[in-house]
Structures are given as structure tokens and as C-alpha cells.
Amino acid sequence: MHSYSDLRKRLPQPTKRHVAWWLAGAVIFLGILTMTTQTSADSRLRLKGEILIESGILNNGQMQGISPRLIVRTAEGGYVVAGKSGWPWAGKVGPSGKTQWRYKNSLPGLEDGEYSGAALQADDSVLLSANVDIRDGDERRGGVLITHLDKAGQLLSEKLLSPQPADRYAIINCKLVRTSNGAILFSHVSRTGDAAGRIETLTWVVTLSSTGQVLKEAMLGQDILGEGPIVSVRQDEAGDIILMRYHVSDVPDGRQSEARQIFRLGADLAVRAQTIVKGALTEAEPDSPQSKLHLISQGGRELNVFALHSKSLTVRTGPAAVNLLGTNKAFMLADGSFLLLGRQTQRNLVITAAAAWYSSDLKRTEALILEPPGASFEIADAVPTGQPGEYAFVRGVTPSTRMLGHNETRSGAIIQFMQTK
């Protein structure tokens, strides 16, 4: 990898060639989606079992809840779940489904934060990242907490990172992506204090070793990597990094609409391609590394699927679909169909975990709503299990109230397994 010292000078600006590489899209509107809470022999979505992870933290005699943000699969076939339970929290289950460890951060002065990034290493240790606030006397400062836990959940190292000088920077959000020998942290930051009093938005990039040690860092301007909060970042099979961030796009009537600014970065972090696509997009992670990049936007009464792979834009239109599914995670399956996981907002504004399947031509749909509503939080994240068509997803669960008419008594994070066909 090249030195960061001249990275800003070396990164190419977007050209017509860069933009054309991305500018393929199929905007496809879906048919009517029938919501169901049942599965049958003909169902494309089938639940296979679940594992409950409790926080292990008692609060007034009750088990404290968990708000999970992510799940990663370990080399041995277990799962690490992370998020928050009052403070940054993580836990692991083994291949048998038994909870092996729980970790709650107890950094002195910690006021707020949750683990929102994880990078599993070759030895099954895990690097976790959290955007946190720390109080030291009368001072309050923010930063990114990097926690390194071994496969048994023992703390190996923990450090608070922040751009310098720390009092000039505020970290808005951050994402951690695993690499072959460690991880890269991408943080959206704002900087104040120049002569004109302006606020500048930047991207702070930190390369970490497999043990969490800082190897290199750079502060990149919005002319290189944009300026909106980072939505997602991942490394594909070719070693390129796909970074997607929030963007506001102008529309002809003078209003502004939500969009995504998407970058493909090489292993040296040079920008290979970039484009802007309108919509609140979620990447559909491909089942096959050879698949083209697909982005999904569900808003109003339609679902848009953009396939970024050629130099032309094709549009197909179909009947409107219901608009009750908010997507946190999406996959493109081996047969070209799509799996979306997230939440359904019911008419009484109760939110519950939900999943939906769409055929490759988007003419057939199926949805699965998890019961009981109001007690089952949204599906936060999901990963392939390594078995064909099978996925493990994580959601929070909390005891429901009598008003909702259900008797859920559990509290914690649920890992649930789903088979697609």
C-alpha cells in the first residue's frame, strides 16, 4: 500500500470513464406484496430456529435489553453480535448455539456509544468500533473506540482514537471494514475553527493492523470522498472497497431529495469509479462475487432496483407495491432473486421485524412478519451461514405489554435462521 502522505494528490478525480462504469440501472417497480406471518411447504422464506443471547446485565432485578447493530460469522461457525446494552456491548455464541462470552465496555467516563462496526480476524479475534462520548471532569470529548477481543472474549487492547487536535473535530459516524490483514476505519467528521469560522466536512481514514494498532491515517476532503454520513462500506472479493454515503440531490422543481454517492476504491484507496444514484439505497450483497452491484431503494409504493454494470440505463415499470417494509440489509441470491430484511411499520405505528423475498423479475413476492408486533425489534443485520440459501439475522426482543395482546417475556438479542429457496 502506498504512503498516505501524498494520497490526496494521487487520488484521481472522477472522469467520464469513471462515471460511465457505474451508470447502468434498472429501475423496476414491483407488484402487490402480500404480507403473511405463516410459512408453508411452498414458501420461499422458512424460519429454522433461533438462539437467545441475554445481556447478562441486571437492572433493578430485570435482565437489561440489547439493541443489536451487527452480526458476523466466525471461522468456527459461531456468531458475534454487537451493539449496546446501556453501553457498547458484544456477545458470542458457538456453533452449538451456546453463549460463550459477553463483553460490556466499562471505559471510565463513557457517557454514550454503541458498537457499530466489526472486523473478524484470521485467529477469530474481533476488532469492534464504536463512536463514543467520554467525559473527563468538565470536558466532554468524542472519538472512535477500538476494542480488540480474542476468540474467548478476553480484552486484548482498547484505545480511543480521534483526529488531532481533538477539540477541532466532531465525529458524525464511522464504519469499519475488514481487510486481509486488519481493518480500515472510515469516519465522517466535521472540522471547525478556520479563519472564516466555517465548518468543513471530511473523511478520516485509519488503517489498523490485525491487533488494532494504527498503521496509517489520512484526512480526505469532500472533493475526494464526498461529504455525507457514511451509509455502508465493504470489501468485495476482488479487494476493492465499495463505500456508499448519504447525499442530497437537487430535483428540477428546486427541492432536494435523498440520494447515495457511491465510490469504488482500489486496495490503495484510489478512487476507481463513482456516481450518484437518487433514492434511500441499500446495497444487495451478491451471493456470487461475479455478480454486478445492485442497489435497492424502497420508498412510497414502489421498489427500485439499480444494476450498475454497463453504459446504458434501462427502465421497467410494473404495478405498485405496498410501502411498509424498511430495509436494513439486502442480499441478491444465486438465482437473481432478492432478500430484504428490516422492519414493518403497521397501521397503528407499531414496528416489528420483517423480511421479504422478490423474484428476479420482481413479479412474485413473499413477506414474513415476525410475531409478536411491538415486542420484536427490527432486523438489524444478517449474514450468510455458509449453507446454500441460508441466512442468520439478529434482532432485539423485549417483553411486550398487555395492551398489544401478546405474552413475550424474553429480553435480549435473537439470532434467527432463515432458509430461502
The second-level CATH architecture is 7 Propeller
How many domains comprise the coordinates?
Answer: 1
Oligomer designation? single chain
The parts where pLDDT drops under 50 for at least 5 residues are 1-39, 310-322
Biggest beta sheet summary? 7 strands, mixed
Give me some keywords for this one.
globular; Methylamine Dehydrogenase, Chain H; mainly beta; four-stranded antiparallel beta sheet; 421 residues; seven-stranded mixed beta sheet; disordered N terminus
Gist?
The chain has 421 residues and is mainly β. It has one domain: 7 Propeller (Methylamine Dehydrogenase, Chain H), CATH 2.130.10.
Could you characterize what this model shows?
The chain has 421 residues and is mainly beta. The protein contains three helices and 31 strands. It has helices at residues 7-10, 16-22, 222-225, and strands at 25-28, 45-53, 58-59, 62-63, 67-73, 79-85, 87-93, 99-104, 110-120, 126-136, 139-149, 155-161, 169-179, 182-191, 200-209, 214-221, 230-235, 241-250, 256-265, 271-278, 281-286, 293-299, 302-308, 313-316, 325-332, 338-345, 351-358, 365-369, 376-384, 390-397, 412-420. It has a seven-stranded mixed sheet, with no helix packed on it. A four-stranded antiparallel sheet has the order 2-31-30-29, with no helix packed on it. A hairpin with a 5-residue loop joins strand 5 (67-73) and strand 6. The two termini are 41 Å apart.
Give the arrangement of secondary structure elements.
Layout: H1 7-10, H2 16-22, E1 25-28, E2 45-53, E3 58-59, E4 62-63, E5 67-73, E6 79-85, E7 87-93, E8 99-104, E9 110-120, E10 126-136, E11 139-149, E12 155-161, E13 169-179, E14 182-191, E15 200-209, E16 214-221, H3 222-225, E17 230-235, E18 241-250, E19 256-265, E20 271-278, E21 281-286, E22 293-299, E23 302-308, E24 313-316, E25 325-332, E26 338-345, E27 351-358, E28 365-369, E29 376-384, E30 390-397, E31 412-420
Parallel strand pairs: 1-24, 21-25
Antiparallel strand pairs: 2-31, 3-4, 5-6, 6-7, 7-8, 9-10, 10-11, 11-12, 13-14, 14-15, 15-16, 17-18, 18-19, 19-20, 21-22, 22-23, 25-26, 26-27, 27-28, 29-30, 30-31
